[in-house]
Design brief:
The protein is of the alpha/beta class and 121 residues long. It has two helices and six strands; from the N terminus they run αβαβββββ.
Amino acid sequence: MKKISIMAVVGVVASTSAFAGSGNMANNNTNNGTMTEVMTVEQVRGLSDNSPVIVRGYLLRQNGENSYVFQDNTGSINVEIDAEDWGGLNVAPSDYVEIWGEVDKNGVSMIEIDVSAMKKL
């Protein structure tokens, strides 16, 4: 009887660990689970719609309800950060941040990053 209980606990712990591990992978990757390197704004501008991205730089200012201007040493781009994607962070323009997301192209000239997560560096 004890062996069954212990095995059940081991099975629950193993499946919980696997589930937690997949969540941790999502924190280190973009929404589709593929690894990507840190890119510049200039590189992001050349990518296709829905491409996963990681960028590092500064959130300069808010320019809409969920829209912000992000800048690195190659240029600036609009980023969309929904309330749940802030993760409790308070970010000032002087804070260096890393942003995970995907390219969102709306037409020929409109491009932004749809943010899924970020952290201060």
